[in-house]
Amino acid sequence: MTDLAQLQSDALARIEAADDAEALEALRIEFLGKQGSISALMKTLGKMTPEERQEQAPKIQGARTAVADAITARKEAFEAEELERKLATERLDLTLPAPEAPKGSVHPVSQVMDELAEIFADLGFSVATGPEIEDDWHNFTALNMAETHPARAMHDTFYFPDRDADGNRMLLRTHTSPVQIRSMMKQGAPIRIIAPGRVYRSDSDATHTPMFHQVEGLVIDKDINLGHLKWTLETFLKAFFERDDIVLRLRPSYFPFTEPSVEVDVGWKDVGGRRVLGGDGDAPGHGWMELLGSGMVNRRVIEFAGLDPDEWQGFAFGVGVDRLAMLKYGMDDLRAFFDGDQRWLDHYGFSPFDQPTLSAGVGAGA
Amino acid sequence: MKFSLEWLKYFLETDASAADIAAALNRIGHEVEGIEDPAEKLSGFRVAKVLTAAKHPDADKLQVLTVDTGEGDPLQVVCGAPNARAGMKGVLGLPGAVVPANGMELRKSAIRGVESNGMMCSVRELELGEEHDGIIELPEDAPVGQTFAEYHDASPVFDVAITPNRPDCMGVQGIARDLAAAGLGTFKPVEASEIVASGECPVEIRTDDPEGCPAFYGRVIRGVDNTKPSPEWMQRRLIAAGQRPISALVDATNYLMLAFGRPAHVYDLAKLSGAVVARRAKDGETVEALNEKTYTLDDTMTVIADDNGVHDIAGIMGGEHSGATTSTTDVLLEIAYFDPERIGVTGRKLGLASDARTRFERGVDPAFLDDGLALLTDLIVKTCGGTPTEVVRAGTPPTEAKTVKFDPELTERLGGIAVSQDEQRAILTSLDFTVGDDWTVTCPPRRHDIEGPADLVEEVVRIHGIDNVESTPLPRRPGVALPTATPLQQVERKLRRAAAARGLNEAITWSFLPTAEAEHFADGAELWVLDNPISEDMKAMRPSLIPGLLSAAKRNADRGADGARLFEIGRRYFRGKDGASDEKPTLGVVLSGEKTPRGWASGKAAKFDAYDAKAEAMALLEAAGAPVANLMVMGEAGDQFHPGQSATLRLGPKNVLARFGAIHPNTLKAFDIDGPVMAVEIFLDAIPAKKGGGFARSAYSPPALQAITRDFAFLVPADLAAGDLVKAVRGSDKKAIVDARVFDVFAGQGVPEGKKSVAVEVVLQPGEKSFTDEEIKAISDNIVKNAAKQGAELRG
């Protein structure tokens, strides 16, 4: 073995055997430092003849590279060990809880109103609003309920002592129907609106609260008939409940503001003691549930709203928003809707990202 | 309205089952709310014969019977009825049967040590009447062993909701007519039998109020006997209808009302004096009605009176003193036509509801006075005997028939269903309309609901079958549906989801508050206060969303919740123009209890503070599209807030967009809730609408050169608002300074009394070229100079 080979092999062995970064640094200086043994050999190259140099240079260079690489590798190994030791001291107990961000929620009534707006927008209906503190002309008279009309008394109306400038008695609207009148008076015809909002009746028990929510629908155009009403309600309910087997049963009824008037029942099926909408209500294990009131708008109402009933006709319907929410999302106590119980809101509320869209389905899965 | 199938069949010849009849009623607009089958209630009861009756060994009032049930050995039954005796037939309830009157299930038992295998029942126990003096005694020919349901021929009872436009169906006859038109059988109108009258009516009858009482007919019947109950067949029908039998005379009038929808009244002639007159009441006149309450009348109300005073609130309720009793022997029958509107007004004013009022205010058949009187006379004479006089008539009822020019094509145009002209004619005719060749339709006078052609369409469609209407798609515009939401609706929807995304739970609270709570938040506004609240807690319309949310937060705390973060989007109610309301869309937030629970990392639980409220206010205003960078933080959040920890956010000095902060301890006390509690109220109507449309953003590319930051620590007067200092700093070089942020506020050691130290980090953004040292120095000098104007000096 030449001297050089011996030097290299000794150097590599000692590098391998170095105990720590400090010892390694000493070896680096010993071999590769300015005064180092390999550095000294490098210096000899200058004094050599070209032939000698040509022969020796690659060997010396090679020894230098091998030693330098070994030092680097050993150094990295030391660093890796050091890091490992350090990290071992930084262990966290990740079974401990992370900071929690509060989860907010959207109230089921709002969620359902957004769903309604989305579905009816596709059918060309816009969302109209009106005052909740109404006058009795808009709430009753213009809807063909004169002062002496027995239906007025059936509304359990909340009254204010006040009268407006026209002498009309002020009250809390008992239904969203006055929005029909206001919308027709403001926009004229043709018109397609839904009007969701708060309504009030002096009634309180397990299934009634003095405040609740309704949505009104109104279509006034030419050539609109009961068939369009039926289609609209079917289409709406199918889209809302996202099922194709919704079956409606129309029953003649009476509302002063429509003629003919139609009460709409929806078929349901008993699923484990719960009524789930869908199917023919006359089928075994099924039944009918009264859900909507509707009809062809009474010509007097169209007249009161300032339109010509010989030119314009259409339909209107009304349905409880809270009721729709309960049927779709399974709540069974209306009073809890207005209690603001954090636990109930956490349970029945909706993620802000459950924005109803037609492409994703308007409903939010459980 | 309730009626039995048996009663219906008196007017309708039909083989249809109860279920078919119910389906048909629903189909034609008479909603069946229930069918009750008394046969079910009577299961377990049977006709039985008492073979022997002996005294109970240990009880004076009890007897031990042996009873033949028609099968097996006779049963031993203990019975307390005084009329129980050997040889009689009665109704035995067997063990397992449930007594209809009290829901008790019968069991084999020992009564005072004697075995009893059932119960002999009274009329009342089986809900067949009021009688309870003894057990039921059946006729000799009653077949022993037959089920009592079968023997009694118990008939199913329909409970039908009659819509207010159909008073003609508030009697069984009217329902039968409708069912017959719907093909359920043949209508059998009941003809009044000829009354053999004897002599003139001795009582003068007048109507001095032809407006309120256009017609008043009457007659006297002498020599009636009102001591016996009404006949069994009548009682049975009345009971099925939910009407308690009272006396033969009263039952007869009730029967007339329920069968024919025709209220009438019977006076005890002995209690009347002089002419019986329909007139207006005098202001302040009083009458004690049959419900034993005294009513004070006014001169808009029609009454029936004699020389002594008022005997009847016309069409609503009779008087206590002139009604028929068991000692009555001579009666005056009254059948009248009252103006429906006036009846309604009077009834509402008096707060008095009755079956008569329900019918009169909806409109009874004006052509049914004579027939009605004859039917009533007949019923009374047959039951109570007596001799009727001739009828006296005052006034005439408005029987002029209404005609409607009908176009049969309207049925399809409005109803969306093609019904042949022949069928339309047949339907209308079967409902008693007269249809002329030119389709002029004459309405029966009882059909007050028919106002025009649309009503006739409804008649045709409901009988033809409204469920047969074919769905017809609404025409839709070509292409994708257009957006419909108004700017306010867009803001509300966005805000709702932004608030929820920030961890707030949306609540819906009542629009009405207890008056004291509303007053507390009224800030001088005149409240809307209900005349007839459902409770004192729901009386005044809310002028703020905060009180409702505070109460909800309190309920949560009372239920042990650690905290509540609630928001609501709704209206506040104020006074508007011309007596109308001004309802302002508003978002309210209440933060109560713990902001973060105690934790392993953070230690103690943290409460909310006013900055949490500010954070919500700013973030939500930004979500609502308000120009938050331009908002001014000002005072006057309101008395409900902590004066030192609350503020308003304004766009200009007047336009308040929001208020926020800590709730005042006095307010917390008033709501009985532990603090601190934070609240925010954002006034959505005050947020300016975004100008301009379009989707393109303004042009922007990130600057190539890096921004630099410089820190400035100032000593400022302790009461200087940090916001003012920052504003001054930012204003020093509007181009170069892109941000200025307070990162430290300190007072105390090392800071002179009356001062505080505020440190601001300023971000400078170079444009095309980097800043030179001179430029930076110039900017810094300017910052210090501007800050000095606010009383700030740079700390050494």
UniProtKB/TrEMBL annotation, chain A:
The lineage of its organism: Bacteria, Pseudomonadati, Pseudomonadota, Alphaproteobacteria, Sphingomonadales. Its main location: cytoplasm. Tetramer of two alpha and two beta subunits. It is an enzyme of class 6 (ligase). Belongs to the class-II aminoacyl-tRNA synthetase family. Phe-tRNA synthetase alpha subunit type 1 subfamily. InterPro entries: aa-tRNA-synth_II, aa-tRNA-synth_II/BPL/LPL, Phe-tRNA-synth_IIc_asu, Phe-tRNA_ligase_II_N, Phe_tRNA_ligase_alpha1_bac, Phenylalanyl-tRNA_Synthase, tRNA-bd_arm. It holds the Pfam family Phe_tRNA-synt_N. This is Phenylalanine--tRNA ligase alpha subunit. Mg(2+) binds at E259. Its cofactor is Mg(2+). GO terms for molecular function: phenylalanine-tRNA ligase activity. Binds 2 magnesium ions per tetramer. Its EC number is 6.1.1.20. It is found in: Cytoplasm.
From TrEMBL, chain B:
Residues 399-471 form the B5 domain. Residues 39-149 form the TRNA-binding domain. SUPFAM superfamilies: Anticodon-binding domain of PheRS, Class II aaRS and biotin synthetases, Nucleic acid-binding proteins, PheT/TilS domain, Putative DNA-binding domain. SMART domains: B3_4, B5, FDX-ACB. Keywords: Aminoacyl-tRNA synthetase, ATP-binding, Cytoplasm, Ligase, Magnesium, Metal-binding, Nucleotide-binding, Protein biosynthesis, RNA-binding, tRNA-binding. It is an enzyme of class 6 (ligase). Binds 2 magnesium ions per tetramer. The keyword DNA-binding does not apply. It is found in: Cytoplasm. Residues 703-795 form the FDX-ACB domain. Mg(2+) binds at D449, D455, E458, E459. InterPro entries: aa-tRNA-synth_II/BPL/LPL (IPR045864), B3/B4_tRNA-bd (IPR005146), DNA-bd_dom_put_sf (IPR009061), Fdx_antiC-bd (IPR005121), Fdx_antiC-bd_sf (IPR036690), NA-bd_OB-fold (IPR012340), Phe-tRNA-ligase_IIc_bsu (IPR045060), Phe-tRNA-ligase_IIc_bsu_bact (IPR004532). Tetramer of two alpha and two beta subunits. Belongs to the phenylalanyl-tRNA synthetase beta subunit family. Type 1 subfamily. This is Phenylalanine--tRNA ligase beta subunit. The gene is pheT.
